[in-house]
Design a protein that fits this description.
The complex is a heterodimer of chains A (about 1200) and B (about 260).
Chain A (H helix, E strand, L loop, with lengths): L1 H12 L4 H10 L4 H17 L3 H16 L8 H8 L4 H14 L11 H8 L4 H14 L2 H14 L5 H17 L4 H10 L6 H17 L8 H10 L3 H14 L4 H17 L3 H17 L7 H17 L3 H17 L1 H5 L2 H7 L5 H14 L5 H14 L3 H20 L5 H11 L8 H14 L4 H13 L1 H6 L8 H12 L7 H8 L9 H25 L2 H19 L4 H22 L5 H6 L12 H4 L25 H7 L1 H6 L8 H17 L10 H7 L25 H22 L75 H4 L13 H6 L3 H28 L10 H16 L4 H12 L7 H20 L4 H6 L3 H5 L19 E5 L3 E9 L6 E10 L4 E9 L5 E3 L11 E2 L9 E10 L6 E13 L2 E13 L5 E2 L5 H10 L3 E7 L6 H12 L2 E6 L2 E8 L4 E8 L4 E7 L2 H16 L2
Chain B lengths: L1 E8 L4 E6 L5 H16 L8 E2 L11 E7 L2 E7 L5 H19 L4 H5 L51 H12 L9 H11 E2 L2 E2 L4 H17 L5 H12 L11 H11 L4
Antiparallel strand pairs in B: 1-2, 1-5, 3-4, 4-5, 6-7
Helix pairs in contact in B: 2-5, 2-6, 5-6, 7-8
Classes of the chains: A alpha+beta (about 1200), B alpha+beta (about 260).
């Protein structure tokens, strides 16, 4: 036996260990891949052996190979084997490998649950520690749910080492299983005051991380953190807390006021730069959040700026960088204080460190004024020339444009200068920002009328050198500028000096090498240019010249007709036909110029970027109303539109069913047309002639520009912006002299500016070179003020947006293993009722209402606590014990807010006194309440059902049953995604959710899973709309266009795409046919594939889970305008709890009240139908009575519920 | 949150790759490569922050790195972490490695043999939390938890070039023809510093105590089965023409702990 063991070890001696592997790899530099695949084969052999030591060695080697980029997921099962070894040495290797390569998609991960649970409860702290560490890397929603309770137990472990790790891992658990947050939070909060600094630090860490995502839920912890901040000496903890306060202050300005003093003290006292920096940062956040009513406001700002200056001047580049970073935050609200350090920041522009230069660039944004703009931009242009890397140069370019265009070109006094700067920027090679320059050119040319002549001249020069521009760059680079150039030359062709020459330039054969969208603009604008040439020549009486132009077009256009780009082709062939027609007319000597230019008549106005989004739902558009029914009253409707312009509030307050009058319609049509027309990116349809006359008056309100140029307008080829700098200086000088002469008798009238920003005093002296009217961007007339971009619905942290102050409900329990259930509290008859309970026991009914009231009060008090704390001086610094301090503060408040409620206060104290588990009083009280409730339920069983139904039960009402009460079996995992379609390449599952924002929209989330070996790309979803249900498509696309899926799918990957559908009537289920088309690409080539599917919109998918309190529910039922229907399903074995959960989950209901085997449920449709259900469970049958505001809908819904129940 | 921790050498060879967010292996390699190229371009005396952006996550993420002789330590963090705090944390991590492996250089991530010399360093000053923070000035002494200074030498853990020194020493010993990255021990140390992307412990003494306790436990379990195999490698290194058939296992077992604590 011993001999065999010896032999075994000798055999093993010749296995490769990690060192040998690494050495081998080193020695096989040429055929490394081959060597490694050989090693992997050996490892596979080793993994097949029985000895755990051999396996561990193999897994150890795999971990190394994983680092080199080899996929080791195939060994997942062996890794689990090694994880479950009894020796720590092996276990550690296993967990390390698991933490490196396990993830949510690893299928064997569910096998680990029991092993991990065993390790977590191991007597050895090392085993527990290593399991926690590993779990933190690969925790999945299932693991989180199953292990949450075990980890929570570990949070009270005797060893701080384990406590620390358990606290930290809770964050990961919360992320994966948000339902565990509320039950676990009280204990987490306790850990903030753990005697061990490591545990405390971990708790701070977790709460800060939680609070950063959803700060408002953690405001009530501010007093506790404040205490920690003033008492803690651990800089790591302090930094975290101070950062957290930075996130909280925007929500509660009073908190900021309280913070200023201790933070200032810390700034003065600390020697740690990291702490100093974070303090300064938070002070800045406080100052930003405070309105300027602070007495020592400017003092604090000064302190910050002064400290930051010290950082920036430091020779340490890191401090310099951070100083600049913080400075840019101050800049946003207090630009003046930063401006005084201009010298320092300009100096940083010359720093050798790119990161620092970039940060300094950010600051420049706020440094410019009318006076300094030219100088600063000149400096930047010099940097552009010197810059080496394209990234930095591109950054410079965007910054120049940002700086110049900020707040509506506020600082630009001379737009000719700006245009020349833009033109100079086009000479940059290899930039990615061609489109940015182009957008600026378009914007300036459209909005600054006085500049158009100059701009057109410059652009024609650009077009002339087009081959040069285009040939020197790649496709998406600088050639984008030509897009703008062509458009400007075409649109404002009346300003062109030599239109023929430009026409010639635009029709050059080389143009066909440009990207399609640019060519399309070329073609379209050739026609505009042509129209204006015809007009000029006809007026001049030179028909030959006009015919020459026609001839040129006829010769050159065919090259565009042959274009591969559809858009170019279509436009070119249209225009070609048009020109041919013109040629015929010209031959008959019929004047055509007038008609041709009428195609492009009318002024184009700029439109604000978000105008489209802000168009409010039009007056009178009521999506709930039947289209065919006439509006009920239209007596005083005519008066309303007038009032609309005066009484804004009223307008927004109540949406009316206004009749859509002619005027309104015309106005809307007009607004839409202008918006489309002036959007250069919108493909315009040529307006029909009769419409043009209608449009004419619309142009009147655009401010007309008075050109008063003091700089001669001449076109100096490609001008150098520097000339303008000189000119500008001279001009300013002249102006000053003149001004002195006139002794300010006459003040120049300033151009209207949109933001009404007052120029700074230093700017006062500089009058703009041109009286510039910046045409303001148009907005829909009654645009909604809200400007909130929708939050990302896929944000994983949103699920953690949970109110933590709300008392815990019964249903909120961490799922516990069954066998532990035996120890869970049994029905209270058998148990001794706690002392507290006995004392406060009163006749049932009364007590109920009393409890209700006190709970309400308590909720109010949560807020009051904070108010109280914020309104007084800081709490005593040396509180004897933290728990006591909390209680005392609470008592203080209740004395203030609810002096009558003495019994409440005493009860609290008692609870606190006997609270040996050191739980928060509130928590404890909840648990006793819970017991009481059980008891009550038992006692009342068999009583009149009606009375029960009426009784309000807050907790249940607000919390839909999700987790299941502890005595019930755990709920099976449910998914709302149903299969949609599947073929050899892709599997689709989908889910339909009503939209909370839009009352007639549903969002369809489709999960696409690629189970082929090819890359799926160019996926497009096309759906055949029905009359009732329509897919929302991107603007400008037609009904038959597919909607592109915004991602590609590599093999084995799945991703989710969301599509929005608008629905008219929701009372019936809908089915839509659709097709997913995609290109599957593998080594052999690419194939076009299709997959047909049928989307089923059930009635349930139009429902939104809406909590309803039982009072409201009762009223609703009594109101009597709901129709009634019921169903019955037999042969159901599932527990009632699960049954309800299923209905809640699949049909979006919430439980209003549940008594024994009878429950009332409520839901609301996206169009506001109320749906009430009464679910009763018999022996093996379930009956569902429903009431709903719409009979058809109810019928359909009940059918769907029946379907679900039938599966139970 | 810390999103990733990467350690690689001056040639971009990964020495430790730890992601706290799932990326497929090939993407991981790509991130390491790109990060290496970003960092390589930078002088030692410019700032240690990089707005990595495109690599991991969005603009919220920063790369914070330090360069020690032959090794780059790169942490990818989001805005909830204090920049200077992370620089300190890297320092703590490196000093802990330094303590556990004598000298932190690439070689020590490669060879980790004579670990029993740790105690020889003697006067280990208590790493008090206060001293753990960023100070603009301070002196560099191994074992003394001084944080980052702005001076040039701060980028070297040791003022003298001891690293080259030990290179030479070992090359002279004739055993330096290959590298043997000790992935696992460095990982184990890292696990005591950062857990699941969150800072677990910043007190170096705690970390070292934990690691030593674990090592003791491992030793008591007899180490990894590789122990005998290691002996063989050692024998191989001596370039004996042939490995003797009758190895006295008893002898080896005495020798092994000196050679290898970690595999």
């Amino acid at each position: 036996m011993a001999l065999r063991m010896v032999k075994g070890s000798i055999d093993r001696m010749f296995d490769k260990n990690l060192q040998d592997l690494v050495r081998g790899i080193r020695n096989h530099k040429e055929d490394e891949a081959k060597y490694i695949s050989q090693c992997i084969d050996e490892i596979k052999q080793e993994l097949k052996q029985d000895s755990i030591a051999v396996k561990a060695n193999a897994v150890c080697k795999l971990t190394y190979l994983q680092m080199l980029g080899y996929d080791i997921s195939w060994a997942a099962f062996n890794i689990i084997e090694v994880m479950s070894a009894s020796k720590f040495t092996f276990k550690r290797i296993g967990y390390l490998a698991a933490s490196q390569c396990f993830h949510e998609g690893t299928d064997v991960i569910m096998l680990t649950t029991n092993q991990i649970r065993k390790d977590l409860s191991s007597p050895s702290q090392h085993d527990t520690g290593v399991a926690l560490t590993g779990l933190s890397c690969f925790v999945t929603p299932d693991l989180a749910r199953d292990l949450a309770n075990d980890i929570m137990t570990l949070m009270s472990h005797t060893k701080p080492y384990i406590r620390k790790k358990a606290v930290l891992i809770m964050y990961k658990v919360f992320l994966k299983h948000p339902e565990s947050l509320r039950p676990a939070f009280p204990r987490l909060k306790e850990k903030l005051e753990d005697p061990d600094p490591g545990v405390q630090s971990a708790a701070v860490n977790v709460i800060c991380e939680l609070a950063r995502r959803n700060p408002k839920n953690y405001l009530s912890l501010a007093p506790l953190f404040f205490k920690l901040m003033t008492s803690s000496t651990n800089n790591w903890v302090l930094i975290k807390i101070i950062k957290l306060f930075g996130a909280l202050t925007p929500l509660e300005p009073r908190l900021g006021k309280k913070l200023i003093e201790p933070l200032t003290n810390l700034i003065h006292s600390t020697s740690a730069m990291s702490l100093l920096y974070e303090c300064v940062n938070t002070v800045i956040a406080v100052l930003i959040s405070l309105s300027s009513g602070m007495p020592n406001h400017s003092a604090s700002i000064q302190l910050c700026v002064q400290k930051l200056r010290i950082l920036i001047e430091d020779s340490d580049q890191n401090l310099k960088y951070l100083g600049l970073l913080a400075m840019s935050k101050i800049l946003k609200t207090h630009p003046k204080s930063v401006q005084s350090h201009k010298d320092l920041i300009l100096q940083c522009l010359d720093d050798k460190d790119e990161s620092i230069r970039l940060r300094a660039l950010d600051l420049l944004y706020g440094m410019v004024s009318k006076k300094s703009l030219m100088e600063i931009v000149k400096k930047l242009m010099a940097h552009v020339d010197k810059a080496e890397g394209t990234t930095y140069r591109d950054e410079l370019l965007t910054k120049i444009i940002d700086i110049c265009s900020q707040s509506n070109y506020q600082h630009i006094t001379n737009f000719e200068w700006y245009i020349s700067i833009l033109v100079e920027l086009t000479r940059l090679e290899g930039t990615r920002h061609g489109h940015l320059i182009a957008a600026q050119m378009l914007d300036v040319a459209i909005r600054v009328k006085a500049i158009r002549k100059f701009a057109v001249a410059q652009m024609s020069v650009l077009l002339d050198s087009a081959p040069l521009v285009a040939s020197s760059t790649q496709r998406n680079g600088i050639c984008e500028v030509l897009y703008a150039a062509a458009w400007i030359c075409g649109e404002f062709s009346e300003h062109l000096q030599e239109p023929q020459r430009t026409l010639e330039a635009m029709l050059r054969p080389k143009v066909t090498t440009l990207p399609g969208h640019i060519q399309a603009v070329y073609v379209q604008n050739v026609l505009k240019l042509y129209a204006s040439i015809l007009q000029q020549e006809e007026q001049a009486g030179q028909p030959e010249a006009a015919q020459q132009a026609t001839q040129l077009l006829l010769e050159r256009l065919p090259q565009f007709v042959q274009s591969a780009d559809l858009e170019v082709q279509e436009r070119a062939s249209c225009i070609l036909q048009l020109v041919k027609h013109v040629q015929k007319l010209q031959a008959k000597a019929v004047p055509v110029a007038e008609e041709l230019s009428a195609l492009f008549a009318g002024e184009l106005n700029p439109v604000a970027p978000k105008a489209q989004k802000k168009v409010p739902v039009p007056e009178g558009l009521d999506l709930d109303a039947w289209i065919n029914e006439p509006p009920s009253d239209s007596d005083s409707e005519d008066e309303r539109p007038k009032a609309m312009f005066h009484e804004e509030e009223q307008r927004h307050a109540k949406p009316r069913q206004a009749e859509v009058d002619e005027e309104e319609l015309a106005r809307r049509r007009e607004a839409r047309r202008q918006e489309q027309a002036s959007n250069p990116f919108y493909i315009k349809s040529s307006p029909s002639p009769h419409k043009r006359y209608q449009d004419a008056p619309g142009v009147e309100h655009i401010p007309v520009v008075q050109i008063d140029l003091s700089v001669p307008l001449k076109v100096p080829g490609l001008p150098l912006s520097e000339q303008y700098v000189k000119l500008e200086e001279e001009r300013r000088h002249r102006q000053k002299l003149e001004k002195d002469k006139r002794k300010k008798r006459k003040k120049e009238k300033r151009g209207r500016r949109r933001h009404g920003s007052l120029p700074t005093e230093s700017d006062e002296d500089i009058a703009p070179a041109q009286q510039v009217d910046i045409v303001t961007e148009e907005m829909p007339e009654n645009a909604l003020p809200s400007d909130e971009d929708d939050k990302d619905p896929n944000d994983p942290y949103r699920a953690l947006d949970i109110d933590l102050d709300k008392p815990l409900a019964d249903s909120e329990k961490l799922p516990v293993l069954k066998h532990r259930n035996a120890q869970a509290p049994k029905p209270p008859e058998k148990e001794d009722v706690p002392v507290v309970e006995k004392k406060s026991k009163k006749p049932k009914k009364k007590e109920k209402t009393h409890k209700e009231r006190s709970r309400k009060r308590e909720e109010g008090r949560k807020g009051d606590d904070l108010d109280f704390w914020l309104s007084t001086t800081p709490p005593p610094a040396a509180a004897p014990s933290p728990a006591a301090a909390t209680v005392r503060v609470q008592l203080g408040v209740s004395a203030v807010t609810a002096p009558k409620d003495d019994s409440e206060v005493t009860r609290r104290e008692q609870v606190a006194d006997e609270d040996d588990e050191a739980l928060e009083p509130k928590v404890r009280r909840k648990s006793t309440q819970k017991k009481k409730k059980h008891k009550k339920e038992k006692e009342e069983r068999g009583k009149d059902k009606k009375s029960k139904k009426r009784r309000p039960e807050r907790e249940e009402a607000t919390e839909p049953v999700q987790n299941g009460a502890p005595q019930e079996e755990p709920l099976p995992p449910m998914s709302s995604y149903c299969p949609l379609a599947e073929n050899a390449y892709v599997k689709m599952t989908y889910d339909v959710q009503g939209s909370l924002q839009e009352d007639s929209q549903v969002t369809v989330s489709v999960i696409l899973e690629n189970h082929s070996r090819s890359l799926l790309k160019n996926m497009e979803l096309s759906v055949l709309d029905s009359l009732n249900t329509k897919m929302a498509r991107p603007e400008g696309s037609s009904v038959h266009d597919g909607v592109p899926v915004p991602f590609q799918l590599p093999p084995g990957v799945s991703n989710e795409a969301q599509f929005v559908f608008s629905v008219q009537s929701i009372v019936m289920a809908q089915k839509l046919k659709g097709t997913l088309s995609f290109i599957a690409k593998d080594e052999d080539g690419a194939t076009q594939e299709k997959l047909d599917f049928k989307l089923h919109f059930s009635c349930s998918s139009y429902l939104l889970t809406t909590p309803c309190c039982s009072d409201a529910f009762a009223k609703l039922l009594e109101s009597g305008d709901l129709s009634v229907s019921s169903i019955k399903v037999d042969g159901i074995s599932m527990s009632f709890q699960n049954l309800l959960a299923r209905i809640c989950f699949h049909h979006h209901f919430s439980v209003v009240e549940r008594v024994d085997s009878c429950a009332s449920m409520y839901s609301r449709s996206i169009q506001g139908h109320h749906v009430c259900l009464l679910v009763k469970k018999g022996e093996s049958s379930v009956s569902v009575d429903g009431k709903c505001s719409d009979a058809t809908m109810l019928g359909n819904l009940l059918e769907e519920v029946k379907g679900t129940l039938a599966q139970c | 949150m810390i999103q990733a921790i990467l350690v690689f050498n001056n040639h971009g060879k990964p020495r430790l790759v730890r992601f706290y967010q799932r990326f497929p292996e090939e993407i991981q390699q790509q991130i390491v490569r790109e990060t290496f190229h970003l960092v390589l371009k930078r002088d030692d005396n410019i700032c240690n922050f990089l707005e990595g952006g495109s690599l991991i996550g969005g603009s919220d993420y920063k790369l914070i790195y330090r360069h020690y002789a032959t090794l780059y330590f790169v942490f990818c963090v989001d805005s909830s972490e204090s920049e200077l705090g992370i620089l300190d944390l890297i320092q703590v991590f490196v000093e802990t490695l330094d303590k556990c492996f004598e000298n932190v250089c690439e070689l020590d991530l490669i060879f980790h043999m004579d670990k029993d010399r740790v105690d020889r360093a003697g006067c280990v000053t208590q790493l008090s939390p206060r001293s753990c923070s960023y100070k603009a000035a301070g002196t560099l002494r191994r074992g003394f938890a001084r944080m980052y200074t702005g001076s040039v030498c701060s980028h070297r853990l040791c003022p003298q070039p001891p690293l080259c020194h030990c290179w030479k020493e070992r090359r002279a010993a004739g055993c330096l023809t290959w590298e043997d990255p000790v992935v696992s021990p460095v990982h184990y140390i890292l696990q005591e510093v950062v857990m699941g992307g969150m800072v677990l412990e910043t007190n170096m003494n705690e970390i070292v105590a934990q690691i030593e306790a674990q090592n003791r436990l491992e030793k008591s379990e007899g180490g990894l089965s590789a122990a005998p195999a290691r002996a063989v490698s050692a024998v191989k290194n001596i370039n004996l023409p042939e490995i003797p058939r009758n190895i006295n296992l008893g002898d080896l077992n005495i020798k092994v702990p000196n050679l290898s604590q970690f595999v």
